Amino acid sequence: MLASIPTFAPRILVRTGAAPSDKDAAIREAAQLLTAAGCIDEAYGESMLRRESVANTYLGHGVVIPHGMVDERHLVRHSGLAVLQVPDGVLWHDGQMAHLVVAIAAQSDTHIMVLRRLTRLIQDEARLEHLRVTRREADIVAALSQDTAPAAAGPAADLRQRFDWTVDYPTGLHARPAAHWVEVAKSCSARVQVRHGAQVADAKSLIGLLQLGLHCGDAVTISAEGDDEAGALAKIRAAVTRLSAGEKAAARRAAEAAAEAAGPVAGWNPSDAPRILAGIGASPGLSIGPIHVLADAAVTVLDEPEPLTTGADRLHHALAATAGQLKALADDTERRLGKADAGIFRAQAELIADTDLITLACQLMVEGHGVAYAWHQAVDRLAGQLAALGNPVLAGRAADLRDVGRRVLAQIDPALKGRHALPDRPCILIAPDLAPSDTAGLEPSRVIGLATAQGGPSSHSAILARTLGIPALVAGGPGLLDLVDGTPAILDGGTGRLYLDPSAADIASAEAWRDRLRQQAEAEARERTRPARTRDGHAVAIGANINNPEQVPFALDQGAEGVGLMRTEFLFLERGDTPSEDDHNATYVAMLKALDGRPLIVRTLDIGGDKQVAHLQLPREENPFLGVRGARLLLRRPDLMEPQLRALYRAARDHVGPGAPTGAHAPLSIMMPMITSVPEVLRLRAIAEGIRAEIGAPYVPLGIMIEVPAAAIQADVLARHCDFFSIGTNDLTQYALAIDRQNTELAPEADSLHPAVLRLILMTCEGAARHKRFVGVCGGIAGDPFGACLLAGLGVHELSMTPRDLPGVKARLRGADMSALRALASQACEQEDAAAVRALDRERAPELGTGVAA
Ligand code: PEP
Ligand code: MG
Predict the structure, then answer these.
(1) What pLDDT score does 6 carry?
(2) Annotated catalytic, 797?
(3) Minimal-distance CA residue to ligand 1 atom 1
C-alpha cells in the first residue's frame, strides 16, 4: 500500500543569512527561489500569501512552513523546498518568531513527508540551534533529508488510593451520569482519576470521561491522591454506585415503552412473545442470526505524548495506508454499487490529503501532544468548523471528514480499530450509527442485517444498505446498544423491528417467511417489465427517479416506463460551478436519447432547503426550508432559470421536431418545484412560453410539483394553469406535519402515510380531475408497495420511484383490484394516525391480494 504513495525527492533550495523585513517579504523571497528553480508558477507565491490569511503556518520552535492554497496546487510544477535561514528572526504570527522559513511546493501526499522531517528536526534542539546560524547550506539540506530513530512511551499509572468498579449502567457512562461524577470530583480538592485499561481520564473533566467511552460491563479503576484522598475516594464511590439503580430503571422504562409500541405489523409476526425493539424500516427483508454490538463510534483518544520522531512516522504511515484502503474501497464500491457511490470514497481520499488538516495535526504534535490525539483533535476542529457553517453540504463534508479521520486513527493505533472487528460467523450488526464507508464496506455474507440506534431512513447509510440488499432498521434508540453480543435475533428491515431471543417455532416461521419473500422477489423480478395493470384493468404509469443518462439502462431494466422525476439540482451539486446552457442541453438530449421515445419529466432547479450549492453563495437563511427555495429561487434568479429553460426547449425542438402535432404525447415535460401560489405559476409559465417562442420549440407540457399544503388545497385552481401535477410527498409530509425532513429525532413521526398527508393527496387528485389533469407522485412513498396501492386508490395516475423499488411496486399493483384500492384509500383517509393506516396493510392483505401469503 505504501508503494502507491509517491516518494518525495524535492529540490532543496537554501538561502542562509536572510533578513526579510517582514513575513510577506520572507514568503516572497522563498517563493522567488522556488520560481527561479522552476518548481512553481510565479502565481503560487501569491497563493502562499493568501494561505497565511486563512491559516497559521507556524509549526513550532522557530520553524514556519508557508505553502499555497489547496485548490491552487496545479501551480506546483516540481516538488521543492525553499529554506530561508533568518538568524535574527522574522515576526510571524501572534508574536511568534521564525528563524527557518521552509516554503513547501509539494503535491498533497508529499506534504506529510516534509512535515515528518521537520517534526523530527524540531526534536533536536541543539541541531536546530545550529541550523539557525550555520553558514553551510549543506547542513540545512542534510537536516531536511534525514530520518532519525524512534523511541518508546510509558504505561498509564493509578493514583495512590484506588478502588475497582465494573460499569453497571445499562447505557454505559453517558453524559448525564458523567456530569454527576464530575460534579462530585470537583467538590474534592484531591486529584481523582478514572482508568480503563491503558486509558486514563481526569474525573473532573466531562470530555475526558466521555472520551473513555465506557460501556456496561467495562472494568475501571478509580483512584485519588492529595488532600483527604481517602475521603474523596469514598465520596466518589458513593456517587458512582448510587446512580446504578436509577440508570437501570431508566433503561427498563425505555425498553418497555419500545415494546409497548411494538404491536402486530404487516408482514411477519411472531407467534410467541419475544422481546421487541422497534425502529424504522430502512431496507426490507428478514435476517435471522446472532447480534453483534459495535461499540460507540465516538472513539476514545487519550493524549499519550510520544517523541515527535515516532509520531510523525506513524502519522505518515497511517495516512499512506488509509489512502490505499480508500482506493481499494472505492474500486470495490464502484464494482458493486456503481460510480456514484464510489465517489464518496474518492472524495474522502482528498480530505485526508488536505494540507490544513495535516499541518494542524503536526502543529499539535509539535506542541507536545500524542499523534493519535493530535490527529483526532485536528479532524475534530476542522470538522467542527465545517459543521458550524450551517450549510448542509459542508456539514456532510464534516461527517465525511470524521469518518475518514477514524480510519486514519485506526491505522495510527490498531487498538482503536479493534472495536470494529466482526465475529467470524454471520451476524446482525448493531451500531450507534454507521458512516457511509462502514456501510459500504459491509459484506452481505458476514453482515446479514443492520440495526442502528440513530439515523433516518433517508440517510446515506440506509440507502447503501438497500443497494447492498442488507435488511436494515434505523433509529432503534439507545436500548439497542445495551444488547448482549451473540443474542439470537430476527430483524425485519421492512417493519423496522428487532425480535430478541425468538423461540425455535418463531425462527422456523421467520425462515419460512423469508424463503417466501425471496421467492416473491424473484417472481417480481421476472415480471418487472410487465405493466402495472390492476386485476380489473386499470393501468398505473410507472416511472423512475433518476438524474443522469447513465442511470437509464438500469431503470429500464427494472421495469421503468419513463422518467417521472429528473432532479436537475444534481447538475449543480455534483460540480463546483454552474452548468452552462450547453451543458444542460447536452444532458437533456442524452437523457432523451437514452430513453428512446419514453417520457421524461425534467424538474427545473430545486435549490434551497437541504439542497445547498456552495458555489452559488446564496444568502444564509434562518429557516431555509421556509425560505427562498424551489420556484421562489427560480423567479429571483433568471440567470439560473433561463439558461436551463432554453436548454430544455432546445432539446424539445431538436428531439421532438417542430412539426409534432399539438397535444401529441411529447416525450419531454417540464416541471416546476415548490409551487405555493397561482401568481408563481403564471409568472413561470410566461417566462417559459417567452423562451419557447424565441427558440421556436414545440409545446412542452408544463407541470408543477405539489409539495406544500397550500398548493394541495388550491389544486383545483392551480390545475387551470398547468398541464399536470407531480406530488412531492417528501416535502408535502414535511410541511403538512411541520417536521423538518432531516430531523432524525422526529423521523419516526414523519410518515407520508399520515392521514393528513393522504387527505392532501386526495384533494390534489380531485382538484386535478376537475380539469382532467394528470397526477403523478415522485416522493419516496411511491416506492413503498403499500403506499403505491394507497396512492393509486386515491386517484394518482403515475408513480415514480428509485429504480430498485420498481419490481415490487408493479407486482403489488398487478395483484390488486382498483375498486378495492379505492375503498382502501378512503378508509385510510378516515384513520386517526399513520400507524392505523399502516395497520390496514395487514388487516386487508387477503382481500387486496397483497403481501406474502402466510
Ligand atoms: C419530494 O419532495 O417528495 C420530492 C420528490 O422532491 P425532493 O425530494 O427532491 O425535495
Ligand atoms: Mg421536494
Answers:
(1) 34
(2) no
(3) 728
Å from CA of 704 to ligand 2 middle: 11
Looking up cell 460534579 gives 183
Residue 652: pLDDT band with limits 50, 70, 90: very high
Q: What is the mean pLDDT of the chain?
A: 83
What spacing in Å lies between the alpha carbon of 731 and ligand 1's midpoint?
6
Would the pLDDT of 849 be above 60?
no
Write the pLDDT tens digit of every residue in 671-710: 999 999 999 999 999 999 999 999 999 999 999 999 999 9
Report whether residue 757 contacts ligand 1, using a CB cutoff of 6 Å. no
Mutate which of 613, 729, 730, 760 for ligand 1 pocket (most atoms within 8 A of beta carbon) = 730
Average pLDDT on 245-265 reads 69
Mean pLDDT of all residues in 517-528 = 87
Atom of ligand 1 nearest to the CA of 727: 3
Among 81, 471, 8, smallest CA distance to 267 is for 471
Out of 778, 789, 797, 829, pick the active-site residue: 778
What is the dotted CATH code of the domain comprising 2-143? 3.40.930.10
CA of 707 to the centre of ligand 1 (A): 8
**Looking at the CA of 730, which ligand is closest?**
1
What is the tens place of the pLDDT at every residue in 382-413? Answer: 877 766 665 544 555 666 777 788 888 888 88
- Residue 395 C-alpha to ligand 2 middle, in angstroms? 20
Q: Cβ contacts of residue 470 below 8 Å, gap of 6+?
A: 283, 285, 287, 442, 444, 447, 448, 449, 450, 493
β-pairing verdict for 199-202 and 58-60:
unpaired
User: How far from chain centre, in Å, is Cα 269?
Assistant: 33
CA–CA gap between residue 403 and residue 749 (Å, rounded): 28
Whether ligand 1 lies within 6 angstroms of the CB of 611 is answered as no
pLDDT in tens, 795-848: 999 999 988 889 999 999 999 999 999 999 999 999 999 999 999 987 776 566
Write down the pLDDT at residue 267: 79
Residue of 567, 569, 605, 800 to test ligand 1 pocket, by largest number of atoms within 8 Å of CB: 567
Fold (CATH) for 161-257:
Histidine-containing Protein; Chain: A; (3.30.1340)
pLDDT of the residue at 657: 45
Determine which residue's CA is closest to atom 8 belonging to ligand 1: 730
Domain ranges of the chain: 2-143, 161-257, 267-295+421-516, 308-416, 538-847
- Report d(CA 803, CA 743) in Å as an integer: 26
Strands (E), 148-190: 161-166
Q: Is 78 a catalytic residue?
A: no
Closest approach atom of ligand 1 to CA 729:
3
Superfamily for the 308-416 domain: PtsI, HPr-binding domain (1.10.274.10)
What is the rounded distance in angstroms from the CA atom of residue 728 to the CA atom of residue 777?
6
pTM above 0.70, yes or no: no
* Cβ count near 525 (within 10 Å): 15
Active site residue 93: no
Grid coordinates given for 547: 438524474
267-295+421-516 topology per CATH: Glucose Oxidase; domain 1 (3.50.30)
- What are the grid coordinates assigned to 705, written together? 410539483
Select from 3.20.20.60, 3.30.390.80, 3.90.550.10, 3.30.70.1890 the CATH code of 538-847. Answer: 3.20.20.60
Model confidence band, residue 199 (pLDDT cutoffs 50, 70, 90): confident
Instruction: Answer yes or no: 460 catalytic.
Output: yes
